[in-house]
Amino acid sequence: MINNKKIIVVLPAYNAALTLKQTYNEIPFDVVDEVVLVDDKSFDETARLASQIGIKHVIQHNENKGYGGNQKTCYDKALELGGDIIIMLHPDYQYTPKLIHSMSYLIAKEVYPVVLGSRILGNGARKGGMPLIKYIANRFLTLVQNILIGQKLSEYHTGYRAFSKEVLENINYQQNSDNFVFDNQMLSQIIYANYEIAEITCPTKYFEGASSINLTNSTVYAFGVLKTSLIHFLNKIGLMKSRIYQNSIK
Question: What is the rounded CA–CA span in Å between residue 24 and residue 28?
Answer without folding.
Answer: 9
